[in-house]
Amino acid sequence: MGNSERKPNRLINEKSPYLLQHADNPVDWYPWGEEAFEKARREGKPVFLSVGYSTCHWCHVMAHESFEDPQVARLMNAAFVNIKVDREERPDIDHIYMTFCQMITGSGGWPLTIIMTPEKKPFFAGTYFPKKTRSGIIGMMDLVPRIKDVWTKEKEEILRSAEQIAVTMKGVVDIKKGNELDENILKKTLSQLLESYDSEYGGFGSAPKFPAPHNLLFLLRYWKICDENSALEVVEKTLEAMQLGGIYDHLGSGFHRYSTDKQWLVPHFEKMLYDQALIAMVYTEAFQATKKRQYADTAQETFSYILRDMTSQRGGFYSAEDADSEGKEGKFYLWTMEEMKELLEKEDIALVVDTFNIEREGNFSEEATREKTGNNILHLKKPLSQFALDRGLSEDDLRNRLKAIKKKLFREREKRIRPHKDDKVLTDWNGLMIASLARGARVFQDEILLKAAEKAVRFILTEMRTGEGLLYHRYRDGESSIKGYLDDYAFLIWGLLELYGASFNVDYLRKAMVLNDMLLNRFWDEKEGGFFLTPDDSDANLIRPKSFNDGAIPSGNSVSALNMLRLSHVTGDYRLFERALEVEQAFSEALQRSPSNYATMMIPLLFRLSPFAEVVIAGNPDSEDTKLMLKALNNLFLPNTVVLLRPDKEIPEISSIADFTRDLKAIDGKATAYICRNFRCSLPTTDVDEMLTLLGIKSR
After folding, report:
1. Which among 565, 584, 609 is the end of a domain?
2. Residue where a domain terminates, one of 147, 173, 199
């Protein structure tokens, strides 16, 4: 029976794009749920769990080689009950079994392959497996019969082993509360990051090289607060190398997932929403810190990509774009010299070839063959300012010429078959994008970015909440589902706090406080402190995970700690400060061993241990003097400063949240800054320069 005649498996009823990609497989896939485990118990079979996501290149490869193959499918269906999980929909399941994989094999990744008992206790783990054994990797045609044989002959021993593994895993995630941390761990974090820093090409480590924006966010704050220039040098070198390299899409904007080489030239071409959010935020903050135009340009171009290609009509942001198109990774993004010549005028070709390093034989080698194939990745070898100087052009003239050329190339590229787009809307990733857009709106005074962030929040709060106001994790095709995780609450609260800073709409603060209360009520570990990944009424899994390390996205515990510190300064509620401190103590032993693995957790620690300021601007929000004061603050990188707006009304809304603002009024009808630093308040001022002086800023 051919593919067109084959009956779809149970995944056909799912909403996940990843699960739907496997709905026509001959493998008898089940979604995660009791039906599959009951079948496994009834038939006495182990469970084969495959975890991946829709834009995962090697997930596609394994699917094409094995899961679409009738021979492999027959073996799998006979030996196992087979379950597919989208890691982006179920980060809890992914976290549990990735922990096991890393514990057993020393590494992890996707596709994640787990074989477990019907009681969800794992006994085998791996990642990618080809159909046939090759290059030292066992193939599915050999692996499946071997597992089936061992399960049949040594089942009792496997069950005992799986039981012991489950106990060990529980011990790994049962983290005990430690002591309060001090500034020494911040110095150690910097030292470790400097050790892994690539001083030649920027970034951390060698190939493959990830942008690691959480490291850069920490380093920017360390530079600002501790006056450590080496931290800023790392950030600038890395940001400049990334914006020049092939990891950046020079035609359509946005960043690819990572670079396969240490020079940032050849990317893994998928684009993830969370990467765009976090990287754009770093470039925005770097612009605040240095006032260098190229950082603002890169942030704004990345935002443009999101608004153009990754935003639904209703305002939610899509999750990702695939690396592959027409069955080949990167095909959508690559160019030959001949294609350039067909599209461009002679003088434009010369400029593009020189600027973007186009070569007739191609400017990179295909990974599979190690040979050049005529394809080119657009990238720069030096900043445009230097390039313009070398050619005797003004930078503006060069930018304008390149803008027209890139527009032609972009229009032509749009005619190609696009990579698959994962159009599910995830609350946590949307929260990151909302926070980034709101920060951009504030810094760049961009109303379009603000409206996009506000529209996304309205969508989530309207469509992705239960009747009780609790968050859902995923929306797709008209359906909201899956109970919200820690990251959904933490990142959306972050977005709401940034939206208040961009708009001074007090309703965003109220919503942030309500969600934070829900987070504390449903996720808090009363015994050891910190937040669980799942709520207290989540589906029963092998263990209830608690995550605190940075992966592709920041730790939800880290972001929540910073959220609560910020809210404590806004509201004056010291209990939130204490909770943030308890988050830090919950993971302090692990943090002290290898703090650079937890860079996001170092940010609230920096906030707590360093001088901080509370600024209240009292005045008419529409008056020029109020706007001037706010603009002066927005132009500056002030990571340890909380800014509130107290409108010139008798009893403004903000006083219901921040009672200390109630009696702070404009002096003589002029916008007035009230500044408190380190629990000491200065006399109010109506002068912008004096306001900055009181904040420790020498001059504008």
Report:
1. 609
2. 173
Give the CATH number, domain containing residue 635.
Answer: 3.40.30
Mean pLDDT to the nearest integer, 384-403:
90
Average pLDDT over residues 189-216: 96
Confidence class for position 369, pLDDT limits 50, 70, 90: low
Amino acid present at 562:
L
Whether 700 shows a pLDDT value over 70: the answer reads no
Contact 51, 112 (CB under 8 A): yes
Strands (E), 464-609: 472-476, 479-483
Q: Is 144 left (phi over 0), alpha (psi -120 to 50) or beta?
A: alpha
The C-alpha atoms of residue 645 and residue 567 are separated, in whole angstroms, by 15
Average pLDDT of the residues of the chain: 94
Scanning 177-228, the segments in alpha helix (DSSP H) are 183-196, 213-226
Would 700 be classed as within a structural domain?
A: no
Q: Is the pLDDT of residue 337 over 80?
A: yes
Whether 413 and 430 map to the same domain: the answer is no
First to last CA, the chain: 73
Amino acid at 150: V
Of 575, 438, 423, 448, give the one whose Cα is nearest residue 513: 575
List, for residues 122-172, the tens digit of each pLDDT value: 999 999 999 999 988 999 999 999 999 999 999 999 999 999 988 888 776
Task: Return the pLDDT at 368.
Answer: 60
Same domain, 38 and 53: yes
Q: How many CA atoms lie less than 13 Å away from 338 in the CB half-sphere?
A: 4
* Residue 430 belongs to domain spanning: 183-323+422-537+545-609
* Per-residue pLDDT reduced to its tens digit, 623-668: 999 999 999 999 999 999 999 999 988 778 999 999 999 999 999 9
Average pLDDT rounded to a whole number, residues 221-250: 97
Q: Are residues 389 and 427 in the same domain?
A: no
Q: How far apart are CA 446 and CA 316, in angstroms?
A: 19
Tokens of 138: 């066992």
Are both 212 and 262 inside the same structural domain?
yes
pLDDT of residue 551: 85
What's the rounded Cα separation, in Å, for the pair 644 and 500? 9
**Alpha-carbon gap, residue 393 to 23, rounded angstroms:** 56
pTM, 2 dp: 0.95
Q: Check whether residue 310 and residue 346 sit in a common domain.
A: no
At residue 459, does pLDDT exceed 80?
A: yes
What's the CATH number where 66 sits?
Answer: 3.40.30.10
Structure tokens at 218: 């920490």
Across 77-89, average pLDDT: 97
DSSP 177: P
d(CA 259, CA 364): 13
CB atoms within 10 A of CB 651: 8
Name, in order, each residue with C-beta under 8 angstroms of 354's C-beta and a sequence gap of 6 or more.
none
Same domain, 144 and 160: yes
The reply to whether 5 falls in a domain is no
Q: Do 215 and 273 share a domain, yes or no?
A: yes
- Which pLDDT belongs to residue 2? 45
Q: How far apart are CA 223 and CA 238, in angstroms?
A: 15
What gap in Å lies between CA 436 and CA 554, rounded to an integer?
14
Q: Are 440 and 449 in contact (CB under 8 A)?
A: yes
Domain count, the chain: 4
